[in-house]
Amino acid sequence: MTRLTSAEAEALLAASCAVARPLALKGDRYEVALNAVLAALGEKPSLPSLTLAIDLSVLMNGDRLEPLGPQAVPGPLKDAMRVYEDHVLARLVADRRWTAITEAVAAAPKDLKPVAVGLLAGQLVSRLERTGEAKALNGPGVSQAIVRRIAQRPADEVIQQGRVVLHENPAIVELMIQGFESLARAARRSKELLTDAEVFLLENVAALKGLGPRVTLAQLAEVAQEVEDRLPVRMKTSLSEGDAPTQLEEESAFPVGGFSSISTVGSLENLVTSELIYMDDPADPAAERPDQFDVRFVEGELLYYARDESVAVRRRRTLVLVFDGSLDACRVQDPGERTQRLMFALGAGAAMVRRLAAWLEAEAVSFDLVFTGANRREAPLKEEQGVLGLLLREWRERGQLELREVPSLEEAVAGARAAHKGRVQVVVFGGPRVRCEGADAVVAASEQGPVWAAGEDRPKLPGRARDAWAQVAREILETLLGARSALRRQEVASSEPRAPGRAG
C-alpha cells in the first residue's frame, strides 16, 4: 500500500483517535496513547490500524473494554469496528496470559509503558501476518513526525478534526474499514493471539531497551516456545546415579517420615489418644489429684507416636549444554524461514532445559550452559549468552542453572564431568562442521536442518526447521533419559520370532 501524504496521514491519525476508547484521550492518557502509536510504528511501520495501538494503551493499563462513546460513526465503519472488537480486543482480554501482561506493564517504568504497548502491537500484527493475511495487513505508511506533531495539539481539537474527517473524507474511512476487517479476519484464522513469548518480552522490557536485543529475545522466546510445544508433556525416565537430600519448605512441620513406632518420649501433639483414659474429669468433686495421667506424665510412662526420621533422597543429574563458537557462522536465515539458524539452536537448548526441568521435578536436576570462545577479544556468542540467561532467568534464580564461558570446546566437554557430581550428560550445539569426542550428543546446525550423532550418524530431517529441531530435541532427550533404548528393546523383542507351541 502506498505511503500517505502528510495531510492524509494527519487525517487518518485524527480519525483513528476519534473512534478509539474514550478513556485513551483523557488527561495524561492522551500523551501515553500517542507515544504508544509512535512505538508501534517503530516496530511495525505498516501498521494496519492506528486505533489498535491506542486501544491497547488503555487495556494494557488494566482498564476494562468499555464501549465506544456516543459520537456518530458511519455505518460500515461501525460494523467493521464491532467485528474488530469481538475477534481482536475481546479475545486478547479473555486470554489467560492477559493478566500477566497487564502486571508486566504496571511494573514497567513510566517512560517504558508506551514502548511495551508498541511491542505488543508489533508482535500481534507479525503473528497475524502468518495466517496468510500479510498483504491485507500491510497498512498505509504513516510518518512518526506526523504523530509527534499531532501530540502537540490538544486532545479535544484532534478529536473534533477526526469527527470531521469521518463524515467528509470517505477515502480515509475506507482505509480504516480495511484495517479493522483485515485484523478481524486474520484473528479468526489464528489459533491464539498471545503466547508466552509476548509475556516474557514485556516482563523484561526494562532490561531490553535496544531494538536489537528485543528482536533477539522475541525470536528466541518464540522458537523455544514452538519447539517446547512439539515435545511430549511427560516422558518416562530410567534410573539415575547419585543422591541429593530432599528440600522441604517446612521441614519441622512436615517431617519426611511418617509414624513408625510408639515411644515414651515425644510431644503432646503426638500423644497416643488412648492415654487420655487415665485423666479424671476435673469437674467431678470425687476426683483426686494427682490422677493417673499426671502420675504417668511425671514418671515418663505416657506413650507417644514416634516418627520415622529417615532422610528422603533424590537422584542427582546434570545436563551440560555446550554452545560452540562455530554457531557464530549460523547467523543466516535459511530459505523459507523467518528466523536465523542460530536462534533455532539456542531455542532448542532453552526448550530442552524447560521441558527436562518439568519431567525431572522429582530429581535433583541441574543445568550447566557453557559457551566457548572466552579467550578471544570478543566472544562470538556474548550477546546471545546474555539473552539466553534472561530467557532462563527463573531457573537461574532457583540456583538450578549456571552460565559460564570456557576457551575451547574440548575444555568444555572435559571439564563438565569433573565439575559435577552424579550423572552428567553433555550435549554440544555447533556449526555445520562441529566435531567433538566424549559428548553424549553433538548437534550440527546445517543448511538442510539439524544433524546430530550419538554413536551413529543421523540422517538430515526434511520439512520446516522448527519441526526438525523439535524432533532432534525429542530424540536427544529420549536417549539421555533412557527412554529411547527402552523403546528399541521393545521393538527388538516384538520382532523376534516366537517358538512354536506344542500341540496338546
Instruction: State the major sheet.
Output: 7 strands, mixed
Tell me the number of helical segments per DSSP (H or I, 4 or more residues long): 18
Low-pLDDT stretches: 248-254, 485-493, 498-504
- N-to-C order of helices and strands: HHHHHHHHHHHEEHEEHEHHEHEEEHH
**Helix and strand composition category:** alpha/beta
Characteristic terms for this protein:
single chain; 11% strand; 504 residues; 7-stranded mixed β-sheet; alpha/beta; 48% helix; two-stranded antiparallel sheet
Give a structural overview.
The protein is an alpha/beta fold. It folds into 3 domains: 6-206, no CATH class; 259-307, no CATH class; 315-490. Helix content is 48%, strand content 11%. The strands form 2 sheets. Strands 1, 4, 5, 6, 7, 8 and 9 form a 7-stranded mixed beta sheet that branches. It has a two-stranded antiparallel ribbon with strand order 2-3. Helix 13 (341-359) packs parallel to helix 17. The longest helix is centred in the first third of the chain and has 21 residues, at 113-133. It is flat and about 100 Å long. The model is unreliable at 248-254, 485-493 and 498-504 (pLDDT under 50).
